[in-house]
Amino acid sequence: MASNLSNADAESETDVVRVEAAVEQVLNGVRVGLDGATAKTLDTLQLLATIEGPVSISELASDSDAAKSTVARHVTQLAEAGAVRTSAEGKTKQVELTLTGRLLLRTHAESM
């Protein structure tokens, strides 16, 4: 029975290492996609993290110091990097943070 537990522990550890490697690979891709991002773009991402669920770009801009067109440009850049997901509801563009965006914010905060 003890050997079964140690095998299970080894498999779990291997799974954790695989997941960590996969997350790091995704985050590296996001960092490359955001290579030209300004601090303001990351501010938009951080603001989005404080909002529960999808929000319109207009609503996001009203909570930001940036103009609506600037926030829309940030959202486009973040969406291309996979940090946010966008959807259209009629003429309104909705945006929400993805898991990748949350992980990016966490690693960004840890690196500071």
UniProtKB/TrEMBL annotation:
Q: Which domain of life is it from?
A: Archaea
Its recorded name reads Helix-turn-helix domain-containing protein
Q: Where is the HTH iclR-type domain?
A: 38-86
Pfam families from the UniProt entry:
HTH_IclR
Q: What high-level taxonomic lineage is stated for the organism?
A: Archaea, Methanobacteriati, Methanobacteriota, Stenosarchaea group, Halobacteria
